[in-house]
Amino acid sequence: MTFPIQPADIRLIASDMDGTLLDADGQVPVRFWPLLERILAAGILFSPASGRQYQTLRAIFGDRDGLVYIAENGTNIVRAGVTIALEPVDQAIIPPIVDWVRATAAAGADLGIVVCGARSAYIERSDEAFVASVRPYYAALEIVDDVTVAGAADDVLKLAVFDRHRAETRTGPAVTALGLPADVVISGDSWVDIMRPGVNKGKALQRLQEHLGISRDQTMAFGDFLNDAEMLDAALHSYAVANAHPSIRERARHIAPSNLDEGVITSIIDALPALAPALA
Q: What are the record's GO terms for cellular component (predicted)?
């Protein structure tokens, strides 16, 4: 005798944004919005889990009941406007990283740094090309004379270094070699994030699970890049999109279609077919 496959008991869905949920234009697919409403109506929580700033994620998704934000690569967790966890870096690590970025940029590299505070992000490089690379990720953004001075007056959640197409081969190894008490994470082809040791999307997801009383077995997660690795470990139902970094595809239990093929939408519907009418 055979039995039909039962839908998974999913209570929490966490998804990376860039390269995972978002399309080629960096937008949430139109077909996702009705699906999100069905997810939330079913009592399932949804967590945008991103290196993006909380203010940016909130501007995209709003204040819907059932949303929980994992922002700045897990350093800021917010639900219904209330901060669940905030994990700032040691202020002492900021000057040597800023100095390295300034020196490397002065030598001709296409580099820039974002000091990511809880209130705002701060940059001192103000050319149009760099600002255009930064602004999609930081809705609250200030151009300042000195990012170290600006950061000293805020809770700095992470430092983000932009190194066009050389994040993994130049900035990541170089910042790691500084030997600072921080975790250095490659978060994209051109981005390196520096955070408090032991803080990442996976730790944030585990903290959220404990806060909500939701187990790993009841959690689904989607990712594409190295900063998603621990988050996938924290979810039994872990998915790498087809366009993911090779190590992330190896780490996940499932492979979803690429972000260009709306893999997050497809995989949620496959696991939870009762949500399919959202796409009608």
A: cytosol
pLDDT at 226: 93
Tokens of 268: 């949620």
Q: 3-state SS of 217-275?
A: HHEEEEECCHHHHHHHHCCCEEEEECCCCHHHHHHCCEEECCHHHCHHHHHHHHHCHHH
> What is the phi/psi pair of residue 148, to 5°?
-70, -40
> Looking at the chain, which residues constitute the CATH 3.30.1240.10 domain(s)?
91-195
pLDDT tens readout for residues 61-113: 999 999 999 999 999 999 999 999 999 999 999 999 999 999 999 999 999 99
Nearest Cα to Cα of residue 205 among 189, 181, 229, 224? 229
Measured CA distances, 249 to 63, 167, 254 (Å) = 32, 20, 8
- Cα–Cα distance between 87 and 91 in angstroms, integer? 12
Amino acid at 196: R
Portions of the chain given CATH number 3.40.50.1000: 12-87+200-279
Domain 12-87+200-279 in CATH 3.40.50.1000: yes
- Residues 84, 87, 88, 90, CA torsion sign: positive
CA atoms within 13 A on the CB side of 57: 29
Phi, psi (rounded to 5 degrees) for 33: -60, -45
DSSP state of 153: T
- Mean pLDDT, the chain, rounded, equals 95
**Topology of 91-195 in CATH?**
3.30.1240
